[in-house]
């Protein structure tokens, strides 16, 4: 009996395992590989993690190799040319080309230029903007971005592609920014990691005997993640707060500005910076904190939000993520960034909440999040994303 061949998804993403500093897109692809075992994922990426000068020790650069359930090709810097990338894509048999950014100059713009010049096979292309079109994200370097969008439209660089939106909100963002017909957009929520599902059974962290409320920020330190906003909100809080910051300082000038703000915080706000953390540490970090404060300017999913909730840590977010109406679900809060005083007020209220109430809430969050992350509809939506273009 001849074994049916799985459809092959050739995936372009700036960073992949064993890296972890780049956050969302990397983890989204890794989770797809975990869940969608009826597809073959072949991944082209860089040979080093975000901000690193040296390649991963355990990989072979510029060669295909198996990493978990995927085949991965790690490009060394000298091979990161439009010609080399076009040749590599053209030499690889695949059914769908899956691109994970709109603006990435190497892993998006160059392949699409190569396609425009007829250097790539005539195969379906799916592009996932990964939150780049959210209102907050598009405002960062907005003039440069709008100029690029206009030029790309003039040469029809993104013609005949399918857009992968990770939520209905992101689908609306695509329509708002690009002004295209909705028929080219497929909505499929990002998949949680299997570790998040397992972590949902972690017991709630016992409250410490002191009166300090432990608040955590865990993300890349860049303008999009909005750490400076979190610090300004905390400056308005009167209760005693320990604010722990985890994540790589991706933008050093931005981090310098954040440090200046930290130096001006009142005495009741204590801040510690711990640097980048490995994914294996994330659940235990959230479990040791009362509240995850993440006023991001835009997330297409927010894996870190799922990880916080999976161990019972309440979240205080901006309304620029797919995690909406959290207060009605009793999982936390999602607020507009226009009202910084409201963020401060909620932190104040949470800080004075009785310990017994916090512990009961953690258990309830774990129960609700386990059900939310276990929905089979999300897996089926991701599966149909690729099958719809393969069948065409």
UniProtKB/TrEMBL annotation:
SUPFAM superfamilies according to UniProt: UDP-Glycosyltransferase/glycogen phosphorylase (SSF53756)
Keyword Transferase (UniProt): yes
Pfam family, one: Glycos_transf_1
Source organism of this protein record: Geotalea daltonii (strain DSM 22248 / JCM 15807 / FRC-32)
Protein name: Glycosyltransferase
Domain of life where this protein originates: Bacteria
PANTHER family named among the record's database cross-references: GLYCOSYLTRANSFERASE (PTHR12526:SF630)
Segments crossing the lipid bilayer: none
Molecular function in Gene Ontology: glycosyltransferase activity
Keywords (A to Z) from UniProt: Transferase
Domain (Glycosyl transferase family) ranges: 214-354
């Amino acid at each position: 009996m001849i074994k049916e061949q799985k459809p092959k998804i050739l995936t372009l993403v700036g960073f992949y395992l064993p890296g972890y500093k780049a956050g969302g897109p990397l983890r989204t692809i890794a989770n797809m590989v975990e869940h969608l075992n009826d597809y073959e994922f072949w991944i082209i990426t860089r040979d080093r993690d975000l901000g690193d000068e040296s390649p991963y020790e355990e990989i072979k650069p510029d060669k295909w190799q198996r990493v978990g359930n995927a085949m991965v090709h790690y490009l060394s810097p000298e091979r990161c040319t439009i010609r080399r990338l076009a040749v590599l894509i053209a030499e690889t048999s695949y059914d769908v080309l899956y691109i994970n950014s709109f603006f990435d100059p190497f892993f998006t713009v160059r392949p699409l230029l190569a396609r425009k010049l007829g250097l790539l096979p005539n195969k379906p292309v799916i592009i996932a903007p990964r939150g780049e079109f959210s209102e907050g994200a598009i405002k960062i370097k907005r003039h440069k971005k709008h100029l690029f969008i206009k030029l790309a439209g003039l040469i029809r660089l993104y013609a005949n592609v399918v857009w992968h939106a990770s939520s209905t909100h992101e689908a609306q963002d695509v329509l708002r920014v690009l002004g295209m017909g909705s028929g080219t957009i497929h909505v499929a929520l990002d998949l949680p990691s299997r570790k998040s599902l397992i972590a949902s059974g972690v017991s709630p962290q016992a409250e410490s005997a002191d009166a300090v409320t432990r608040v955590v920020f865990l993300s890349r330190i860049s303008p999009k993640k909005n750490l400076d906003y979190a610090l300004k909100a905390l400056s308005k809080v009167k209760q005693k707060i320990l604010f722990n910051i985890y994540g790589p300082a991706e933008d050093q000038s931005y981090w310098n500005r954040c440090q200046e703000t930290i130096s001006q915080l009142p005495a009741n706000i204590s801040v510690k910076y711990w640097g980048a953390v490995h994914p294996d540490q994330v659940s235990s970090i959230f479990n040791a904190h009362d509240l995850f404060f993440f006023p991001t300017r835009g997330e297409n999913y927010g894996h870190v939000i799922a990880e916080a909730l999976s161990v019972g840590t309440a979240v205080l977010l901006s309304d620029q993520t797919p995690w909406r109406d959290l207060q009605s679900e009793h999982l936390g809060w999602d607020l507009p960034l226009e009202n910084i005083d409201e963020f401060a007020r909620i932190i104040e209220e949470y800080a004075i909440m009785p310990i017994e109430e916090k512990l009961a809430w953690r258990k309830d969050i774990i129960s609700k999040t386990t059900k939310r992350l276990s929905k089979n509809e999300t897996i089926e939506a991701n599966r149909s994303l690729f099958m719809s273009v393969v069948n065409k």
